[in-house]
Amino acid sequence: MSPTAKLGEVMSRPVEVATPDQRLAEIDALFATQSGLPVVDGEGRCIGVVSKKDKARASNGLDSTIGEVMSSPAVTLTLEKTVLEAAALMLKHKVHRIPVVNEQQQVIGIVTRTDVFQALEASKA
């Protein structure tokens, strides 16, 4: 793996997603294994991201809806972008995960800082 590896090679899938009308309580258990989820509309298009930090700031706690607390618009990338481009975008926007989308903006994967670090570390070996 190298910094020029395409996101399609390093992204995780399938991806757990949330919808804006869900309550935080409905997805809270997922935060035990991941720090954030893409938020999608009825057509599966990425409209935001909800993270543990968003949950911590929720004014109504677990009764808050995802739409009330999510970060939007989402920072997204496409399959053909590289690990290096993902790393630069993560630093620029101070995010830990970037949904990978197709031409219709539908979520098809997710790339995390861990994915990026592992690809960059493998390039040194």
From TrEMBL:
Is this entry keyworded DNA-binding? no
Read off the SUPFAM superfamilies from this record: CBS-domain pair
**Top-level taxonomic group:** Eukaryota
The UniProt keywords, alphabetically, are:
CBS domain
Q: Which InterPro entries match?
A: CBS_dom, CBS_dom_sf, Diverse_CBS-Domain
Listed Pfam families: CBS
Put simply, this protein is called CBS domain-containing protein
What is the native source organism of this protein?
A: Aegilops tauschii subsp. strangulata
